[in-house]
Amino acid sequence: MNWKQTLFWSFSAAAIFYYFLLFGVFVFVGQEEMQLFIPEWWYIREFLFQPGGFCAVAGQWIIQYYRQPMSAVVFHTVLLVGCGFMVYRILRCFSDKTYLLFLSLLPVLYLVKMSIHGEYLVDGTVGVVLMLLALSVSLKVRRAGSIAGYGIASTLFLCGLTGLLSVCYAFLYTLLALLRYKITSLLYVSCMDFLYPFDCRCCFIRSLCSGDWREE
C-alpha cells in the first residue's frame, strides 16, 4: 500500500472505532446478555451439522467476550476494516482509481449500521468476512480449468459454513469470473444453477432483507 491508502484505512479504522465507542458499547453489552453460549460438544454439534452452523457457533463464542466492551469495539473495528480492505482489493482487479477506496466503504457502512442494532447477530459479519476472503483468494486463480473448479468447491464449502450466504457468494463469484474471464465461467454458472434452484435463491433474498442469513 502507498501512503495514501495507509492514511485512508487508518483514518477509517479510527472513525469506526470511535463511532462504536460512542454509540455501540451499551448495544454490545445488551447483545451479550441476550445470547447464551454453552461450551460443550453436544451443544456445538447441533449447530455444526447444519448449513451456517459454523458462523452461528463462532458468533456466539465471540459475543461472550462482549462483557468487556472495549474487546467488542476492537473486534468489530478490525472485522469491518478487514471487510473494506478485501472489497478494495477485489475492486482493484478492474481499476486503480482513487474513488474505489470510498466505494469499498459502502458495505462497511452498512455493516456498521447493522452492528449497533440491538438484535443483530455477529455471525452475519463473520459470514461476510469468510465470503470476501474466499473471493480474495479466487483472484489468485488464473488457469481457465481451475476457475469453475474453485468456484464450485468454495461455494459448497461456504454453504456448510455460512448457509444461505453462499448463494450471494455464488452470484458475486460468477459476476467476478464473467468480468475477468468471460466465457470460461459459463461452466460454473450452469453448475450453480443446478446446485441452487430458483426457490433457494428467492429464499435467500427474503432472508437477507429480514437480516437473517442462516437457514432455518
What's a concise summary of this model?
The chain has 216 residues and is an all-alpha fold. The chain is 75% helix and 0% strand. The protein starts with a helix and ends in a 6-residue tail after the last helix.
> How much β-strand is present in the residues?
under 5%
Mean pLDDT across all amino acids: 78
Order of helices and strands: HHHHHHHHHHHH
Query: What would you call the shape?
Result: flat
Q: Major sheet: size, sense and barrel closure?
A: none
Tell me the total number of β-strands.
Answer: 0
Count the DSSP helices.
12
Topology:
Blueprint: H1 3-23, H2 25-34, H3 41-48, H4 53-63, H5 69-91, H6 99-103, H7 106-115, H8 123-138, H9 144-162, H10 165-181, H11 186-195, H12 198-210
Helix pairs in contact: 1-5, 2-5, 3-4, 4-8, 5-7, 5-8, 8-9, 8-10, 9-10, 9-11
